[in-house]
Design brief:
The structure holds 2 protein chains of 2 kinds. Chain A is of the alpha/beta class. Helix content of chain A is 30%, strand content 17%. Chain B has one domain (43-324): Thiamin diphosphate (ThDP)-binding fold, Pyr/PP domains (Rossmann fold, 3-Layer(aba) Sandwich), CATH 3.40.50.970. Chain B is 32% helix and 13% strand. An 8-stranded mixed beta sheet of chain B has the order 3-1-4-5-7-6-8-9, sandwiched between helices. Classes of the chains: A alpha/beta, B alpha/beta. Chains A and B meet through strand 1, helix 17, helix 18 and helix 19 of A and helix 1, strand 2 and helix 9 of B.
């Protein structure tokens, strides 16, 4: 049927939708996920941005489930992790880093309070893995292997599980009820835990019980010693023994305690000595404060509690009731050199905190195991030179010896073991490109400073083993979570949808993000510029 | 228990925010928004006017339950949206001459009254040329008679459609096709000329006058919604950067509008019956240079030797706005708008 048209009009009435302005475009916007700096630096490989996203809306269980996809020990983590994520946090360049560690602790504690449990595997693989050591590396490996449906047996020489988390980290930093609860939650997944079981020949045990693979996580529990000329009546011990004994019966250190070393363990012992009633707890370290391997906040907390520091000093002699120290001076290269100046210091006992070595008995029973010094050499996916034997944690060569690094090792090893048992080699997924501060449009974020965790009153924490750092309450935790900038990952703020002059962004609905309608997108780049979190990239159109 | 601080990550700075309740979100965040100016229009990349028009008309349609007619002056908005017989508009829409949109809207409002359809509201819209110059007589008449029309001016500071000629809304020092920075006018558009139609509208003592910007969506939507709750003559003046005419990156449209507000060059305020009743405070003040430098129309000020005195003159204009409209005083407009 022909339409009666007015004079000189030859076109039909139409909507502008017939005009595909997308053909003008020379560049196109594309939604991407970039790797936020927190995730990139987390030694345990947590998807921090993602669990904060859930915490922001108050869905703490979803947040906890997202967190525990990578790390099964959030309540422990929230207390003992040195949170490199916060050092890398982009918000630090705006006001202050997001208190990631505090929110993690809140989620961990909330899970314990609510009794959230890990899901049992849907199907059993029929494969069995032997895990030696129930420290963070072993627990993490066991958890991830169990999630994949493998049978796991953990053997532990001590009478309780936890490794250095129990026998190295004092109670005032990690209450044992938290440790026990998080270990139990892993055991409840169907992991077998054999305590008081020391294994020297792991290959014999593997053969006897038919395990398909082995994970070693025995830690580094042998204290390094230094030769100090000592009189008969002098009392010299080491940090590892002190921290281990505290767990069972308080050691007798006397009224004046000297700790020799500058790492976190030295700090732990010095603070422990204070709590055991020492009048003087003095750290002697051969270099300066800024050269101490201990974390600055721990040094600060120790000083607040009355621990004294003697920097640029070495112990040359120990006798009953006193020690001799020599003053040091830094040379041009920053190394301490003796000065020939001596001083006497009253000391009932000397505690050596000079680092730890790996126990060798178990290693000696594995023929062909490649070592580096006292530590085990592994490849990129945590397998040792012996096929089917994997290792992680403090016993592995290279890298920082922290709980978080060990948990990361355990996870990576679990994935590698899973692949290995299927005759494959684990290939980690390629990482997204980094979500740098420059990619953010920080205009859109509300101004807000960091919530500070309450710190135990000084007097109380000098005399008891109560936990020093408190937790956030629910309101504060949510506030803190909402300070997250969601770097590099869409958090559904609707900006792209709103600012497109061509209505070429399609909103897919809550939780489904957005899509571009390239029929109409002219490629102006407004959405890219106005995206707060840098989750849109620009690509050139093909000619 | 200590007080829990309410904090919403991006507050109302972003278009939407999943942490806010549905009622607290913007019209533009809604999946059901009308898209009054639909896809396929022929505006340039990053067009501030196309964006401002959709923001404003969507909000007006929601406020009137879609009982809305628009009259449009000649100009970019008309040309790019409706090359006959094709149109992007999703509401009844009349194109008038360049200079008579206000008069045509008056007529439409009168016709609705005669027909007993006063629930159908009338919107008139045009660019700065059609409003501040060519259509100014009709506009003043509409104000003076207090006709029941909301007039929206999308101010991109020159006649962009015809090739970037100066209008009475073109800022001093800007280069346009008719204010080329050459010879005795080496600094571009002269100082001391032009006009502020919002202030002139206030002088008519009409019920409602406001300025708004594409850089503050919540404030813009709140003002349009408020305007539609009032009968009589109303005027909203919306700042809409033009990438083509200003010589700017199309991706910088909102950034420029924001810098105009934050520098004080574009004061955002509202007035009722001739008296100022609210302003949007500057959140993070910036020097005018930050705004000027991103635009080629001011490039002649930054070529050696840098025109320091001219830039200082523009800064003085911004500072005067800040004093006059109290832009550094924490005060949120009664319509909500800018976040604290």
């Amino acid at each position: 049927m022909s339409i009666q048209k007015p004079f000189a009009i030859t076109l039909d009435k139409n909507t502008s939708l017939a005009n595909h302005t997308g053909s003008w475009r020379s560049k196109r916007p594309v939604y991407v996920d970039r790797l936020p700096p927190c995730n990139a630096t987390c030694p345990a490989g947590e998807n921090i941005q993602n669990w904060l996203f859930h915490a922001e809306s108050g869905n703490y269980e979803a947040a906890w489930r997202s967190l525990t996809e990578n790390n099964p020990l959030p309540a422990i983590m929230g207390r003992v992790c040195y949170h490199p994520c916060e050092g890398a946090c982009n918000r630090g360049q705006l006001d202050e880093a997001v208190g990631i560690n505090a929110v993690e602790r809140f989620l961990g504690d909330e899970a314990l309070k609510q009794g959230w449990a890990f899901a049992k595997p849907v199907a059993e693989s029929g494969k069995r893995v032997l895990v030696v050591g129930s420290g963070p590396a072993g627990l993490s490996a066991a958890y991830h292997l169990r999630r994949m449906g493998h049978g796991v047996t953990i053997v532990e020489a001590e009478t309780a599980a936890g490794g250095m988390m129990r026998y190295g980290i004092p109670r005032y930093r990690l209450p044992r009820r938290v440790l026990d609860a998080e270990v139990q939650r892993i055991v409840d997944m169907g992991v077998e835990l054999r305590l008081d079981t020391r294994v020297d020949d792991v290959l014999a045990m593997q053969a006897a019980e038919g395990f398909d693979a082995v994970f070693l996580g025995i830690g580094a529990g042998i204290a390094k010693r230094a030769y100090i000329p000592a009189g008969d009546a002098s009392h010299i011990t080491d940090a590892i023994s002190v921290l281990h004994e505290v767990e069972e019966h308080p050691p007798l250190l006397g009224r004046k305690v000297v700790i020799y070393g500058g790492g976190n363990t030295a700090i732990d012992v010095a603070r422990t000595a204070k709590r055991l009633g020492a009048e003087a707890s003095i750290i002697v370290y051969r270099r300066t404060r800024d050269k101490m391997p201990a974390h600055d906040f721990e040094v600060k907390e120790a000083l607040e509690e009355g621990v004294k520091m003697k920097w640029l000093s070495t112990i040359t002699e120990a006798d009953a009731g006193n020690i001799t120290i020599e003053k040091m001076a830094l040379d041009d290269k920053g190394f301490p050199q003796p000065t020939g100046e001596f001083e006497t210091l009253a000391a009932d006992s000397v505690v050596l905190a000079l680092g730890q070595n790996v126990e060798q008995t178990l290693l000696e029973h594995i023929p062909g195991l490649e070592l580096k010094w006292d530590s085990v050499q592994t490849d990129a996916v945590m397998m040792t030179s012996v096929a089917g034997v994997f290792a992680g944690g403090d016993m592995v060569a290279g890298g920082e010896r922290t709980v978080t690094v060990s948990i990361g090792h355990g996870k990576k090893a679990a994935r590698a073991i899973d692949a290995w048992m299927r005759g494959e080699r684990y290939q980690p997924a390629p990482k997204h490109e980094p979500a740098t501060f420059e990619r953010l449009n920080t205009w859109y974020y509300a101004d807000a400073a960091k919530t500070v965790r309450p710190v135990l009153d000084i007097i109380r924490r000098q005399s008891t083993f109560d936990e020093v750092v408190g937790g956030l309450d629910e309101g504060n935790a949510m506030y803190e979570a909402r300070r997250c900038l969601s770097c590099g990952n869409c958090f559904e703020c609707d900006n792209c949808y709103g600012v497109c002059p061509d209505s070429a962004v399609i909103k897919l609905g809550a939780g489904k993000r957005f899509a571009f309608n390239y029929d109409y997108c002219k490629g102006c780049g407004l959405c890219v510029e106005e995206c707060p979190c840098g989750a849109i990239a620009v690509e050139l159109e093909d000619k | 228990m200590e007080t829990t601080i309410k904090f919403y990550q991006t507050d109302t700075f972003t278009v939407g925010n999943r942490l806010l309740s549905e009622a607290e979100r913007s019209v533009q965040a809604g999946m059901q928004r009308t898209n009054a100016l639909n896809s396929g229009h022929r505006a340039c990349q990053g067009c501030g006017e196309a964006l401002g028009a959709r923001f404003a008309v969507d909000a007006a349609m929601r406020a009137t339950n879609n009982q809305l007619v628009a009259c449009n002056a000649t100009g970019c908005l008309e040309v790019f949206s409706t090359p006959y017989p094709e149109s992007s508009w999703q509401l009844p829409w009349l194109h008038s001459l360049f200079g008579n949109a206000a008069a045509v809207a008056t007529g439409v409002a009168a016709a609705m009254k005669v027909k007993g359809k006063q629930h159908i509201r009338v919107l008139a819209q045009g660019g700065d040329g059609g409003t501040t110059d060519i259509g100014f007589g009709c506009l003043s008449g509409m104000f003076e008679r207090n006709d029941d029309v909301l007039y929206i001016c999308y101010d991109n500071e020159a006649y962009m459609n015809t090739g970037v000629q100066r209008s009475s809304a073109t800022p001093p020092a800007a280069r346009t096709a008719t204010t080329m920075p050459v010879g005795q006018h080496a600094n571009g558009n002269v100082f001391g000329k032009g006009k502020s139609v919002p202030l002139i509208a206030m002088a008519h003592e009409i019920p409602y006058v406001a300025t708004a910007s594409v850089a503050d969506l919540r404030d813009l939507e709140a003002k349009v919604t408020k305007a539609m709750s009032i009968h009589g003559a109303r005027y909203i003046h919306i700042h809409v950067p033009c990438p083509l005419g200003w010589g700017a990156d199309p991706a910088h449209t909102i950034k420029l509008a924001r810098l105009a507000i934050e520098s004080g060059l574009f004061p955002v305020f509202e007035a009722e019956h001739g008296e100022i009743t609210g302003h949007r405070a500057i959140r993070a003040q910036v020097p005018v240079e930050d705004y000027l430098k991103l635009q080629k129309r001011f490039a002649h000020l930054f070529r050696a030797p840098k025109q320091v005195d001219v830039i200082a003159h523009l800064q003085a204009m911004a500072d005067r706005n800040i004093r006059r409209f109290k832009l550094l005083e924490k005060f949120t407009s009664p319509t909500g708008g800018a976040a604290a």
